[in-house]
Amino acid sequence: MAKKKEITVDISKHIFVPKQKILNEDETETLLKTYNISRSQLPSISIKDPVIVKLDAEPNSILEIIRKSPHAGEYKYYRRIVE
């Protein structure tokens, strides 16, 4: 049986991968209160996603994705990390 290869390239440096960070508890609470939502209402992303693996995130954490747009400048997306 073939062994899985580990990622040897830093995928976060790729030009098509936006900036991403895990929110701390204070940032998470502020986000949820600002939008009057619960964690379960956020879109999800798998804990097996290569960027999530690199960030060493925990399930139920919140990921902030900062994307660039020629029209809007920078805008943020949020994802809940699930198993």
Based on the model shown, name its key terms:
single chain, about 80 residues, alpha+beta, Eukaryotic RPB6 RNA polymerase subunit, four-stranded mixed beta sheet, flat
Topology diagram in text:
Blueprint: E1 19-22, H1 25-35, E2 44-46, H2 50-55, E3 62-69, E4 73-82
Parallel strand pairs: 2-4
Antiparallel strand pairs: 1-3, 3-4
Please describe what this structure looks like:
- By secondary structure, the protein is an alpha+beta fold.
- It has a single domain, classed as RPB5-like RNA polymerase subunit (Eukaryotic RPB6 RNA polymerase subunit), CATH 3.90.940.
- The protein has helices spanning 25-35, 50-55; strands spanning 19-22, 44-46, 62-69, 73-82.
- A 4-stranded mixed beta sheet has the order 1-3-4-2.
- β3 (62-69) and β4 (73-82) form a beta hairpin.
Largest sheet: 4 strands, mixed
Question: Which CATH C-level class is it?
Answer: Alpha Beta
Strand order of the largest sheet: 1-3-4-2
Overall SS class: alpha+beta
Query: From the alpha-carbon coordinates, what is the Rg to the nearest angstrom?
Result: 15 Å
The CATH superfamily title? RPB5-like RNA polymerase subunit
Low-confidence residue ranges: none
The percentage helix is 10-25%
- End-to-end separation in angstroms reads 25 Å
Q: Architecture in CATH?
A: Alpha-Beta Complex
Number of domains: 1
Q: What value does the average pLDDT take? A: 86
CATH topology descriptor: Eukaryotic RPB6 RNA polymerase subunit
Q: What is the number of beta strands? A: 4
H-E string:
EHEHEE
SS strand fraction: 25-35%
Shape: flat
